[in-house]
Amino acid sequence: MTTFEGTQDGTGLRVGIVCSRFNEFIVSALLDGAKRGLAHHGVAETNIDVAWVPGAYEIPVTAKAMALTGRYDTLVTLGAVIRGETAHFEYVAGPVADSIAQIQLETGMPIGFAVLTVENVEQAVERSGPGAGNKGEEAAVGAIEMANVLRAIRSK
Ligand code: INI
Q1: pTM passes above 0.85
Q2: Domain with 94 in it: what CATH number?
Q3: 139 and which of 33, 71, 101, 114 could share a cystine (Cβ 3.0–4.6 Å)?
């Protein structure tokens, strides 16, 4: 029996991050968390690229473009869709999540998902703070593990 597990060692990994500018103060805090998680797990800052886009709706096409470059081992997507702010919520949140899942399947690229979909700003703040529970940090560490487990599976 073979068991595949990904370590959380990010040494040598190249990581692309897509950030949406809508609700930028939240997304910047998610980015801080993601960078913290990557650094903590050995990813060199010079191996991280960050692409900023206008809103969450623009994240999938950008993630797909980054995936297709072949320059990254894993991607992380960061955004904040807040229901209280707009009737747009339903049209943005679902398609973004579905599209990112689809891009993983189409390209084989693991994509960490921290596009918050929350009811109000307070919930977004809770999930993007400097301590434990920052979803950007969690997505980044999960992305490292996914890069490593997929590499182990593919190289057997
Ligand atoms: N984009 C977000 O990232 N978060 C939101 O909460 C949001 N709302 O609520 O509208 C949002 N809309 C903009 C959207 O992502 C696109 O940028 C825009 O529609 C232009 O294509």
Answers
A1: yes
A2: 3.40.50.960
A3: 114
